Amino acid sequence: MRFLPSAAVFLSRGILAEADALHASFFCSARYARRGPRFVTIPPAFDVNSEDPHMLSAALASGLFPKILSIDPASGQLKTFSNSQPASIHPSSVNFRIKPANRREEFGTNHLAFFTIMHSKKLYAWETCPVDDRALLLLCGESEFKVSPRPLGQSGDSYCF
After folding, report:
1. Strands 86-89 and 123-131, how do they pair?
2. Which of 126, 113, 120, 18 is nearest to 63 (CA)?
3. What predicted TM-score, i.e. pTM, was given to this entire model?
4. Annotated domain spans of the chain
């Protein structure tokens, strides 16, 4: 028996054997991964959308949600989608060269997806890419659609999500 500060845990031979097997399989896979990435050839019948940037953007948006940055329409500043904290693109990122005032025009969208965010003096996002607003609306979060008696595009209507 091994005692932890809050409770006692019994380690049976079966549990130890499973832990040893997991440990061995992890280090085996890590050893073979050192040779470099091994890419898989995808049959053409299944590779119909790999060249379409809109489909790739939609896939990234749905996979990375809620790791989304909103671009402010007036200033071009970035805010996190989940809690509206101000963020910046990290200087080592390829998208850092784009000035805040030109972000919406350059990216052609109102949102960016990011993979990593780091907090130092301010929030820095790495690995950013533009995502389409329609992809966010259709694939991310919990959308609520209501029927309106007014036609679309009438003055005074606003679309927000």
Report:
1. parallel
2. 113
3. 0.64
4. 53-139
